[in-house]
What does this fold into?
Amino acid sequence: MIDFRCAAILFDLDGVLIDSTDSVDRQWRAWAREKGIGEEKVVSIAHGVRTIDVIRAIAPHLDAEAEVRGLESREADDQVDVAVMPGAAELIGAIPDGRWCVVTSGTRPLASARLRFGGLPVPKILVTADDVLHGKPHPEPYLRGAELLGVKPAECLVIEDAPAGIRSAHAGGMKVIALTSTYPASKLSEADAVVEKLMRIQIGPDGAKNLAVRVG
It folds into this structure.
């Protein structure tokens, strides 16, 4: 058992609350084939970071903003194999309003579409690729989430599935629980705890202002 105390919980979206890994992988591979770029080269860096940052790194000759609009529109329409992660709704339901948010590398339209499709509530605070200048692994996304929640970064706990997200949260001074939904545990060793399923995480009150989180 590993215990955490925090004031708020910040969730990544894809691979944490919504199981969209197959869809993301499928659309990136299709895009790579269309552009004549090696699929494995793209997929190796695509998960957990902003689409625009991937395109700028892989294909700087393309209009990155136009490519993002096309690619993420296709992702939003691709609902095959997309589902709520087991235990996600229950975990969110255990957290008081205003004490959690979503911090995703996707755009706002894509993130909202994923949440609505999964029947999960769209949180009052949703930090997306559109809201930051620097995406994960830069700390800005998670620091922005903490700021909007009105919580000190050191009092935040992040739930992530990708190395870039773990580094983003740690760079912002936050603890991280990693979920092995997209990467194996060996790739997530920088996290403060690693679990196979969200059901291994239990959340309850810890006094008037804090949350007690048990991983085991």
